[in-house]
Amino acid sequence: MNKHNKILFPLSGLDRSVRQYLLITFNYWNFTITDGALRMLVVLHFHQLGYTPLEVAALFLFYEFFGVVTNLTGGWLGARLGLNRTMNIGLGMQIVALGMLTAPASLLSVPWVMAAQALSGIAKDLNKMSAKSSIKMLVKDGGQGKLYQWIAVLTGSKNALKGLGFFVGGLLLALVGFQFAMVIMALVLAAVLTLSLGMLDQDIGKAKAKAKFTEIFSKSGPINILSAARMFLFGARDIWFVIALPIYLGSTFGWSSEQVGGFLALWVIGYGFVQGIAPKITGQNSDGRSAMIWAAGLAVITAVVAYGVQSGWNPQFVIVAGLLLFGAVFAINSSLHSYLIVAYAREDGVSMDVGFYYMANAMGRLIGTVLSGWLFQMSGLVFCLWVSAGFVAAAALISVKLPQQKASTEQ
Question: How many Cβ atoms are within 10 Å of 253's Cβ, its own excluded?
């Protein structure tokens, strides 16, 4: 290839696996920014319209419910169609969901918004399952340390950009309003989809044997245990983070939508950064015991924050500082889980194992989202925190049963 072409196509000189990894990551990054922005826009916009916390949570009910369904069936689709196709289908569906929300405010009824959120939930989990599963196919056998690093970077960067999406959502709401924000994000994703259709490898992750629908439920003990721990872990986060915290910061501390979006953005960016460096903190030979220890530590942190707020120890400082510490330790837990599931998964039909695991992840988010609105409306933020601590403790207890040896040995 001549010098001119190398300038026009800078990725062409890279190793194929690295080139595909970068393309998948770019695709995932752009989707994630719009996903984070959309969540913040919906929470803040509809709270400003006078919706109660439980009503705002209800808007996300289908988003999380269809995430459960998508992860359960999306892995099967990925194994049959190829992960490139499921990733691009996810992008297309997100564009449609954003288009639905460009309707005038008078037409944005609760059922309409819930339907758009349902499409967005399907799109997000198709995209995430496809991205995480694809990396398994790009790392050669025996490269478990590299696998952990690549998964950590993808997961960490995704969450950092989701944090950026929170900020973008709050900023767009202030600058251009709800409808124009949807138009801008839909146009960006349309450009990304065009690039993805042209450059992503065909049939990546497509199973050699024809995947049966009855195989969507995992028969692997370690994957089932890890999935149960994941459900409680993410339920614990969303119980206080998704609905309760943004509304609490605005209603109790008087923060503006830009301040709420900006703070949560910085939190998630920092959370993503810690995820990206998790292998340096936990060691590349981490196993199920590591997941149990870090979950136990997170349970203690959450309980201390709950007690501090309940006791009136300068609630604003305790919540802000506690949230930062919670985020750092939660990020390590999440990164460990994301690595272990890809390491435990079968190579042929990897998307089915990963899809089952992320089904449990989505179930945790669904439970956490509903509880976040309901518990906050009934009993306030402190009770949300105590229930969150109980969920993390459950994740730690379940993780005791995970294999306590290197994932590479497990393979």
Answer: 13
**What are the CB-based long-range contacts (under 8 Å, 24+) for 49-53?**
52/373, 52/377, 53/243, 53/244, 53/247, 53/372, 53/373, 53/376, 53/377
The Cα 320–Cα 125 span in angstroms is 29
How many C-beta atoms surround the C-beta of residue 285 within 10 A? Answer: 15
Q: What is the mean pLDDT of residues 153-171?
A: 77
Count Cα atoms within 13 angstroms, Cβ side, for 127: 33
**How far is Cα 411 from Cα 398, in angstroms, rounded to an integer?**
21
CA–CA separation, 114 vs 104, rounded Å?
Answer: 16
- For 292, left (φ over 0), alpha (ψ -120 to 50), or beta? alpha
Q: Work out the number of other CB atoms within 10 angstroms of the CB of residue 15.
A: 9
Q: Which amino acid is at 207?
A: A
In angstroms, the CA 122 to CA 65 distance is 9
Where helices occur in 284-406 by DSSP H, the ranges are: 288-310, 315-344, 350-379, 381-399
DSSP string, 58-123: HHTHHHHHHHHHHHHHHHHHHHHH-HHHHHHHHHHHHHHHHHHTTS-GGG--HHHHHHHHHHHHHH
User: Phi-psi bin for 254: left (phi > 0), alpha (psi -120 to 50), beta?
Assistant: left
Spatial distance between the Cα atoms of 366 and 235, rounded to a whole number of angstroms: 7
> From the centroid of its chain, how far is CA 360?
12
Please give the structure tokens belonging to residue 179: 């409808």
User: Nearest-CA neighbor of 31 among 91, 100, 97?
Assistant: 91
Query: Where do the domains of the chain lie?
Result: 14-410
Please spell the DSSP secondary structure of 262-295, one letter per residue.
HHHHHHHHHHHHHHHTHHHHH-TT--HHHHHHHH
Q: pLDDT tens, 164-223?
A: 888 888 888 888 888 889 999 999 999 988 887 877 665 555 555 454 544 555 556 778
How much of the chain, in percent, has pLDDT values that exceed 90?
15
The whole model's pTM is what? 0.67
Q: Which CATH class is domain 14-410?
A: mainly alpha
